[in-house]
Design goal:
The complex is a heterodimer of chains A (251) and B (442). Chain A has 251 residues and is α/β, with parallel strands linked by helices. Chain A is built from nine helices and twelve strands. In chain A, the strands form three sheets. In chain A, strands 6-9-10-3-11-12 form a six-stranded mixed sheet, sandwiched between helices. A four-stranded antiparallel sheet of chain A has the order 2-1-4-5, covered by helices on one side. Chain A has a two-stranded antiparallel ribbon with strand order 7-8. The longest helix of chain A has 15 residues. Chain B has eleven helices and 19 strands. Chain B starts with a helix and ends with a helix. At the A-B interface, helix 2, strand 7, helix 3 and strand 8 of A face helix 8 and helix 9 of B.
């Protein structure tokens, strides 16, 4: 699904990623953990195609295609989705219309007929159940006046509608209380399938109690220092990150 | 004396027999004298520094109204606001067309008529209020307009009356005659605690060049409330100069929505005098220009009494090689304690060749006031653009969408959905890749 080899990225003059390698297979759930400033959000943004990140070395293959030259909208059409850490408010752009345009752009890209208003609405109603979205949020402008929790739910709702093949969830758990976290985690779990891979970028092990990863990676200083199964997350929770860094330095 | 003024002087005597009233002729004569004495403003005058009016002056516009003319119904329908239930007044090239207007059902005590008819019928209130509030010497265009007063709309609402439907005034210019000028003069007088909605649409067809010079004078008595919209959708080869003066008494309310989309060179100016304490005004404005359009908005709010408030929001969208000018001035006079005044102007530049000169100004002579002002000039928000693109919206569509949303913030403040719908269609039409977002936003 996703293959990242020796990725070096800088933002402005600052080098953030330093030879990152990552392989994600179809249907797998990966967690990327790491201390602040380790490059987690940079990785998420690079994958989504945000401007301002310069790839100076390495390659990213997504479904056998070179991801690097693709503009963000083409990545979305190819089934890549980023749930933002801080979803932006867009006054004047309606939530539902955004989704309708998005889903139809994706369908067109795949050679499928566009959904008409009725089909689309029926589909949206169904998907709202995934994260208990309140109906009035639908008709509002994108994220405008949403609470922190509502914004995060809206991201997962969008994911449910757009049905990506690879979803990157950038700190979707941050700022959520335990009830909201459960709703979001249940939503994500209901979207797991053998054709869909998920990358959870997170600080805390807490989320991984609800969404169980196949692999856990420790990102620090711009590269993956250690990978393991879900028990690694528990160990990190207990011991912090320093021992991983020390281990890597010794090697 | 400039050739332009000589041209206007030579036309002056020809229009005298159109409508004739002694009190009016006196006003016209003195306006003509003011024009002769002071002439037209140049870019050396601060108020006109960024707007060169020479393209208007060097053309020989003709202020004499055509005697008979044929109205094109498709043109009129294009200028109309669809599905709006209103008292509708239709003008063609500056002349009132009774047969195309609809004032049926108007309560008898309310006067809504063409200014020419009001003058001919010797309506006392017209003589009393016309040209009474504004300063004819302010600039040459106001003097010119006054010297050539011929037609327009006169509205008089007595005390304690609420007008049941909006007054929808359509100034259609088809200008089959070359270089015609459209001289419009409106007078709106609201008595104590009366309420009204008035819409002025300026709409033209792209045949010959023409020039609209329009003034609307408004007097709001104690507790009166006027909601006003001016939709400037002139033809793209037209020139438009508009002035509005609003005098507000005790606790009166005024809301203005000025939208400028058309015209190759336009200037719209509004002066508000908050004379009575507790008077409030809200000014919303949107200007959108592309190609080589030049659009200028000047506003001035004078807080003259205590507890007055003003809230002003103007937005501009400038593409192509267009040029925008915004100047918003708030003056808080020394007796106007507890004034609450806020002004913002935000501009979006869609191309590297577009330009805007914006200047919000605040002059405060009282010490217990709450005032703010600010202006921004920028491009589209990168993080919004990126967000939309990650949701599979292509870059061009995302840009148009965000531009539309920026402009629509102003349009959404207008209280009639019929007007909002109409404007949104025209706004989309002015955006690059309009067809890509039509389905999306309309």
């Amino acid at each position: 699904m996703l293959s990242i080899k020796n990725l070096h990225v800088k933002v402005g003059n600052k080098k953030i990623l330093n030879g990152l390698n990552l392989e994600i297979g179809s249907g797998e759930v990966h967690a990327i953990m790491g201390p602040n400033g380790s490059g987690k959000s940079t990785l998420a943004n690079v994958l989504a195609g945000k401007d301002g990140y310069e790839i100076i070395e390495g390659e990213i293959q997504y479904l056998g295609k070179d991801l690097v030259p693709m503009p963000p909208e083409e990545r979305a059409c190819e089934g890549l989705f980023l749930a933002f850490q801080y979803p932006v408010e867009i006054p004047g752009v309606n939530n539902v219309y955004l989704l309708k345009a998005g889903i139809n752009a994706i369908r067109k890209h795949r050679g499928l007929p566009e959904l008409d208003a009725m089909e689309f609405l029926a589909m949206v109603k169904e998907k709202m159940k995934v994260v208990n979205m309140k109906e009035d949020l639908l008709s509002r402008a994108v994220n405008e006046g949403f609470s922190g929790g509502e914004k995060k739910r809206n991201e997962i709702f969008q994911m449910a509608v757009l049905e990506p093949k690879l979803a990157i969830l950038d700190e979707t758990d941050s700022g959520l209380d335990i009830d909201a976290l459960k709703i979001v985690a249940n939503g994500v779990n209901s979207l797991l399938s053998k054709d869909r891979s998920i990358v959870l970028v997170t600080h805390y092990q807490r989320l991984l109690n609800f969404i169980v990863p196949d692999q856990v990676h420790v990102l620090s200083g711009g590269k993956i220092l250690k990978s393991g199964d879900k028990s690694l997350a528990l160990e990190l929770e207990e011991r912090g990150y320093d021992w991983v860094t020390a281990e890597a330095d010794a090697a | 004396m400039s050739a332009a003024i000589e041209n206007y002087l030579s036309q002056y005597s020809d229009q005298q027999n159109a409508i004739n009233a002694h009190w009016l002729n006196t006003k016209k004569d003195s306006a003509l004298q003011a024009l002769k004495d002071k002439g037209f403003p140049t870019t050396r005058v601060e108020e006109w520094r960024y707007t060169d009016i020479n393209p208007i002056l060097k053309r020989q516009f003709n202020f004499i109204l055509p005697q008979s003319q044929e109205l094109s119904v498709p043109d009129l329908n294009a200028a109309r606001i669809a599905e709006l239930d209103s008292y509708e007044m239709v003008f063609l090239n500056g002349r009132f067309l009774n047969e195309h207007s609809d004032l049926s059902g108007l309560p008898e005590k309310i006067k809504i008529k063409s200014l020419a008819n009001a003058i001919i019928e010797n309506d006392v209130w017209v003589a009393q209020y016309l040209n009474s509030l504004l300063n004819t010497d302010k600039n040459g265009f106001i003097a010119l307009n006054t010297a050539f007063i011929q037609d327009g709309v006169a509205i008089f609402i007595p005390d304690n009356v609420e007008l049941d439907k909006p007054v929808n005034i359509i100034y259609l210019t088809d200008n089959n005659d070359e270089s015609g000028a459209c001289n419009v003069r409106n007078l709106i007088v609201l008595g104590k605690n009366s309420r009204a909605n008035v819409i002025e649409t300026y709409f033209g067809t792209d045949k010959n060049e023409y020039f609209t010079n329009t003034i609307t004078e408004v007097s709001l008595d104690d507790g009166a409330s006027l909601n006003h919209a001016k939709l400037q959708q002139e033809a793209m080869n037209a020139y438009h100069v508009g002035y509005m003066h609003v005098g507000q008494a005790l606790n009166s309310k005024f809301e203005s929505n000025q939208i400028s989309l058309g015209s190759k060179l336009s200037r719209s100016e509004i002066d508000i005098s908050l004379s009575g304490s507790g008077a409030e005004c809200t000014l919303n404005g949107l200007y959108m220009a592309n190609k080589s359009q030049h659009v200028d908005h000047h506003t001035r709010v004078d807080h003259l009494s205590p507890n007055t408030s003003s809230n002003e929001t103007y937005r501009g969208v400038l593409g192509g090689r267009s040029r925008g000018v915004f100047n918003g001035k708030i003056v808080v006079h020394k007796d106007a304690q507890k004034t609450d005044a806020h002004l913002t102007n935000a501009n979006l530049l869609l191309s590297g060749d577009a330009e805007v000169d914006t200047k919000p100004e605040l002059e405060i002579y009282a010490d217990d006031v709450k005032c703010s002002h600010g202006a921004t000039v920028g491009q589209l928000d990168e993080s919004m653009l990126h967000y939309l693109r990650t949701r599979a919206i292509n870059e061009d569509v995302a840009k148009s969408l965000l531009t539309f949303a920026f402009a629509d913030e102003v349009v959404r403040r207008i209280n009639y959905p019929q007007i909002r719908n109409r404007l949104e269609k025209f706004i989309v039409g002015k955006l690059p890749d309009a067809e890509l977002i039509t389905e999306f936003v309309l």
